[in-house]
Write a structure and sequence with these properties.
Layout (H helix, E strand, L loop, with lengths): L5 E5 L3 H12 L3 E5 L7 H16 L5 H9 L1 E4 L10 E4 L5 H11 L8 E4 L18 E6 L8 E6 L5 H13 L3 E6 L6 H17 L5 H12 L5 H8 L1 H15 L8 H8 L12 E2 L6 E2 L1 H10 L1
Parallel strand pairs: 1-2, 1-4, 2-3, 4-5, 5-6, 7-8
Antiparallel strand pairs: 6-7, 9-10
Helix pairs in contact: 1-2, 1-3, 6-8, 6-9, 9-10, 10-11
Length: about 300
């Protein structure tokens, strides 16, 4: 069986640094590769800040955080993945850019290495190619990575069973639950989640109820910890929009059709919590409905 001791993460954004954090804390040598330019050391500082916040909350021992940081290295050199047993791609959700990255990675991968994508909606079959095709799979982590316990392991009928077993053992080592799923657009969670998010945004757009009431109804009526509009803001409205477009294109089902309000907010740069404004105004504590959200759509109507 493939023994995963060194992990490379390609992409130093929120998801990439989150994956790097949990890998380092699990005792794995972790290489974080920043491919978008900028100082790779900034990515390590993001991980350090995340761990410091957990230490401050009493969720992580200071000694464990320091030991994990000692196992973490950041670089801009893609060739450094040659030392990795598992390489996880976590760049922007764009098929052509991921394909281009995989092509650049191919010459540097160790023969035994498992190659994974953190894609949330794209099919692994559209990414797997060349000598590593049978050892390419999906490892879909959820945000925030340190807090979320699920990882979808997407595999093809032709996936090497040893690679799949190694991936599932890796997820278990992180203290997370692996849910294997046959490769398909959206896997399990987003196939079911996106219609709820787009439906909630459409209901809000149509004036069914204020944003807070829609979220309260779903929290208390369905036992959800977070309402769908607040969740859309947390995920990122640009991410929700991209997923909805892809699923709608794939299946032609109106449940996935992006509402006009969602499109207008993304075009206006109101992407949710990460930009401060989305369906909610996150500059307020606690956040309250962003009344300008509907104004954006009405102005465009």
């Amino acid at each position: 069986m493939i023994e995963i001791q060194t992990v490379g993460i390609i992409g130093a954004g929120l998801m990439g640094t989150g994956i790097a954090e949990v890998c380092a804390l699990a005792g794995l040598r972790t290489l974080l590769v920043r491919v978008s330019g900028g100082d790779p050391a900034q990515a390590v500082e993001r991980v350090r800040a995340s761990m410091a916040a957990r230490v401050a909350r009493g969720k992580l021992a200071p000694a464990d955080a320091e030991a994990a940081l000692g196992r973490l290295e950041a670089t801009a050199d893609l060739a450094a993945v040659a030392a990795c047993d598992l390489v996880i791609e976590s760049i922007v959700e764009d098929l052509e850019r991921k394909r281009a990255l995989f092509a650049r990675l191919a010459p540097h991968l160790a023969p035994h290495a498992v190659l994974a994508s953190n894609t949330s909606t794209l099919k692994i079959a559209d990414l797997a190619a060349g000598a590593h095709a049978t050892r390419t799979l999906g490892l879909h982590f959820f945000s925030p990575v340190p807090a979320m316990s699920l990882v979808e392991v997407a595999h093809l009928p032709t996936t090497d069973p040893e690679a799949r077993a190694a991936a599932e053992a890796f997820v278990a080592r992180l203290g997370k639950t692996a849910v294997p799923v046959l490769d398909a657009t959206g896997f399990i969670v987003n196939r079911l989640l996106v219609p709820m998010l787009t439906g909630a945004i459409a209901a809000y757009e149509q004036g069914l109820a204020p944003a807070e009431h829609i979220d309260t109804a779903m929290r208390l009526g369905c036992g959800h910890p977070v309402g769908p509009l607040a969740l859309a803001d947390l995920v990122g409205l640009d991410v929700v929009y991209a997923m909805a477009k892809l699923l709608y294109k794939e299946f032609g089902d109106d449940r996935f059709r992006p509402p006009a309000l969602l499109r207008r907010l993304v075009q206006a740069g109101h992407l949710g919590k990460k930009t401060g404004l989305g369906l909610y105004d996150h500059t307020c504590k606690p956040p309250r409905a962003n009344l300008a959200a509907l104004a954006v759509e009405r102005a465009a109507a």
